[in-house]
Amino acid sequence: MAVTASDDAHRAVDAVWRIESPRLIAGIARIVNDLDVAEELAQDALVAALEQWPGSGVPRNPGAWLMTTSKRRAIDLLRRNANLARKLELLGRGQQTEQWASEPETAAVLDEGRIEDDLLRLVFTACHPVLSPRARVALTLRLLGGLTTEEIARAFLVAEPTVAQRIVRAKRTLAGKRVPFEAPEGPEVAARLPSVLEVVYLVFNEGYAATAGDDWMRPALCEDALRLGRVLAGLMPEQSEVHGLVALMEIQASRIRARTGQAGEPVLLLDQDRTRWDRLLIRRGFAALARANAVGGELGPYALQAAIAACHARALDPQDTEWERIVALYEALARRAPSPVVELNRAVAVSMAHGPARGLEAVDALAGEPTLQDYHLLPSVRADFLARLGRVAEARQELDRAASLARNAPERRLLRERAAALGRHSRTGRL
Questions:
Q1: In angstroms, what is the C-alpha Rg of the chain?
Q2: Measured distance CA(204)–CA(109) in Å, rounded
Q3: Contact 5, 102 (CB under 8 A)
Q4: For the RNA polymerase sigma factor 70 region 4 type domain, which residue ranges apply (predicted)?
Q5: Which of 121, 232, 237, 248 is 20–30 Å from 364 (CA)?
Q6: For residues 325 and 319, what is the distance between their CA atoms, to the nearest angstrom?
Q7: How open is the CA angle 150-138-333, to the nearest 5 degrees?
Q8: Domain boundaries, the chain
Q9: Calpha distance 228→284 (Å, rounded)
Q10: CA nearest 412: which of 216, 178, 207?
């Protein structure tokens, strides 16, 4: 089938939209102070591009074309609102809107120096803590990731109407709570930043280790999260934890090609072919970690996790891993951000540094932890320790339990295969 100029233009529009939509929405939101209206006006500019570019050709600077078109429409909207306000004699609101409409050039100027500030405002608004984590993720991917509702629904295995409702409710909540379109300043940055970083890492993790469904990974989500993280690092270079999160994601993403075998089956960390790790991403992760350290102060949870990931990345052979250092880093992480999952990961490092008996002791101390009762990795980790201690029958029971709890299909199959392999070994007397 022949490729037409119209096809090329449509592909160009799609590519430009994915890159430029956050800047468009951010720039318009500064003018209209309404995320819903800002997104509608940006979509209007997209429709205009789809109508005009096939005939006129893609502009030399497509992002600027979309921004100018969007802002002109924003000014037209403000003028209409001002006229309506005057007719209804809503003097208070009318005078404020009239001032905007009487100075369209001022409002519509494409001030490149303010674009980064606008993006930062959009980040903190979409990730505002008044929203639930799911709403924050959906709104962030829509406004900052440039994803459609359909793409978000497919990535998270959620019905499209459900995602659409989350986005609509999120916008209504922001409007109802009168959340201003602004970035926090001073001490408030430290209070609000964890919410932003949590959203980005939630997106990354869902791509790196899908919680449910038939896919072991969804790399496109990892790419979206990395793009958001890199934007944040550029917007907030003085924040150590932003660089720490980017470092963590870069290093973890470097393993993606090695995390599946030839048949698409999951491959665990210690079994991976490390020659397949992406050394460029590792170098980028090391550089981001160095920037986190250079900012100064105590390393935060993301930077500590990045330091742990760096220990694995430096070991070209699993036997060369600095397990003692990893144990120390997990202890620091447990002090900074205590959680049962951190303790479970620390137990794995302890078992590698000091033997499976010590690891099993640490895991058994978590047996009564309510938040881990349905967490499939707890029995999976315990099974590994038991198998290394020669307690094969118990290990197999733990793997069966882990498989029953796992929601991800490939991971469930892997756990069942490990259980079956233990059964074969026990019958032959081998481990």
A1: 25
A2: 35
A3: no
A4: 124-174
A5: 248
A6: 14
A7: 135
A8: 5-109, 374-431
A9: 15
A10: 216
